[in-house]
Known about the structure:
25 strands
Amino acid sequence: MRDTIESLFPREGEIPANDRIASLIRQDCYLVNGEMRRWNGPMREVLSPVWVKNGSGPARKVIGEFPLLTGEAALEALSVAVRAYDNGRGPWPTMSVGERIRCVQDFTGSLLAQREPIVRLLMWEIGKSRREAEREFDRAVAYIRETVEALKELDRVSSRFVIQQGIIGQIRRAPLGVVLCMGPYNFPLYETFTTLIPALVMGNTLVLKPPRFGVLLFRPLLKAFRESFPAGVVNTVYGDGKTVIAPLMASGKVDVLAFIGTNRVADALRRTHPRPHRLRCVMGLDAKNPAIILPDADLDLAAAECIRGSLAYNGQRCTALKVLFVHRKVADAFLERMAQGIAALKCGMPWEEGVTITPLPEPEKPDYLSGLVGDALEQGARVVNQGGGTAVNSFFYPALVYPVTPEMRLYSEEQFGPVIPVVPYDDISVPVNYVVNSNYGQQASIFGRDSDLMAQLVDSLVNQVCRININSQCQRSPDTFPFNGRKDSAEGTQSVSDALRIFSIRIVVSARETEENREIITNIVRERKSHFLSTDFIL
């Protein structure tokens, strides 16, 4: 297996011309106050997870570099966003909903023109297959369009006046302030946009910090941000998180923290803010989503769904299935199907047709995963599939580990990679108690046919996790469904309509129902004197 994996890494001339990074990408600008500010300070190399063979042996390919901003430069970007918001009096927060929608639509048009370079950078920066990279881009565009349509509907509902108990009122939503937006490396475009776009379209200004991996793919978007939105509405910062993010939070000027990552980092960021009661947090955090395979489950279906749920994009998804509970009666048959399914997956470089398992972007990840597997083996588990757990450079061949017990790290740690722990059980209380006692509560999957037992499980789990998937893998889609979590898995709900609400607040303009007040309100509305107090209907 080791020789097979080593053979997957290409020589420079073996990389298809259409998939190459033609030259080093020098990302030496950042966006602040509508200007492409050139950075003359230190830079950081961007190393691809793809290792390329050369005369001295294989090495990670250098594809570019980006600025390592100072805390002072980051604070300047924040101060620009604060001025652009101007305590809610700036041009962007006071702009009509229709005008903000037009800006977002202009941005979408510019985004579409950058599809191919962004897809290629997703492949080279984070090792995502071309197929998955294209899906991420297209899903990000679809999310923007769905958000615009949801906002139109929300605005239509809000365009009428309500008269109750002698009070005339109109209830609309207003922005919250300055948003610090930090997306994850595994879906750097789509997941970032699930917070950035609703925050923007609701009238907030923001500072965008690209993730640790997936920095360069935002380079093609800087011009689009600059040309589509007023100066200061979107600002970017680059660099080490401790250097640039800590002072932003410590300033107390961030009103909303939109963060997708680990709860450990989220807690540290929240503690830095001096005004915690003024800080709203929108977070997607850790998960250890279980699958429960019942003794009457369709094992072919369950194995196929569990393989996709565990190994799509190498298992580097918060919604991935990260621990499988299988009834002991069907464990051997299930493991056989899983091992066969894993063996059928194509391994290779991101640009290869039909590839599923690709190099990992985190340099330390293969060693970490090997440590998890080694710990399980020392305590009596085995790797079921042939070659499972073989690590070469940035590549880790999927490991199906069985039987996993509570004493093993794999039982409770979120592996976030291509390792599949399988736990045997005899009594259904075992997986149920696992979910109850877990620190995480995002999703769970149930595979079976007995409707009575399935109903019992649904009722047992519905107050522990936020989505239960019947005979299917855990997932986020469709984006109109709520996406959230209990316990340490999330804060706030991220879906198309919910995100609009979480980045805004309901505001009431009211007056006693007198003839004079009627005339005042009628005059304001008829003459379109206010962007907020309006009965305009967006089509």
